[in-house]
Amino acid sequence: MFTGLLAAAILAAACSKPSSQASYTPSFIAPPAQVKVTEYSFGVSPTSNFRSMYEVFQPIIEHINGGLSDAKLVLEVSRGLDEHQQKLRARHFAFALSNPYHTVRAAEGGAYRIVAKLGDDAAFHGVWAVRRDSGIAALSDLKGKTVSFPPTSALAGTMMTQLQLQQAGIDPRRDIHASYVGSHHASIMTVYSKGAAAGATWPLAWATFQHLHPAEASELEVRFATEPLVNMGIVARDDVPPALIRRVAELMADMHKTEKGRALLAQIPSTRFELAGDSQYQAVREFITKYKLVFNSLPE
User: Does 131 lie in the same domain as 116?
Assistant: First the structure.
């Protein structure tokens, strides 16, 4: 009987003890809201070889992305100038850094508008790469010789240098053997390999060539600079949100204000980006008009 009473007491105590499991009320914490990030392509005109363009501009794109909260720029470097121009025509790029000729052409149709540009306009001109032992002392020495050019729509490397020849009394359609070799890099390398007496290019491509190929560059020099024009422009497509366009342009224009930004710009090489619009490219439009009057057509 005692055993039965003890068992009953234990059972009663167990029943009267509050159950921690019964009193537990789970609470749920909502996960943080996910910010939707939209990607926008940023095309860069190939001013030198494909690999070096990525090495230079990918860190710049990453720097800009660091200042964006709900958007991400994705770098695209076309394999050639013609491909870059075709993508502009097809409205493929959301943003694009292009030579001034392509910048103006892209803005003409209304699909893009000019929002910024590279600074250092004095650096945008054509030059001629020649071998140090070539004996070429004047533009007139190019008559009858093979001369290499980047694509026909390369403003500094082809259009400006050919107009320079014409103004010096040398018709590039008759007085030289023009060889279009596909890129600024190839134009310079053709001279090094003695495939051309001179190669038309521009200072940025020459600086890149010197960096990538110092031994080959030591056997060359550049001469006969053209008059400068407005530097490369940045356009934004008409369907990109205006607030994003402003933010990207401002981030680029502010890069030169920090040590990190200046280091990134030096790789181009340039000292700054600048805010810009159509008015900054009036001189380019005037050049295009002059070029068409002389050669009766424009590059595609």
Answer: no
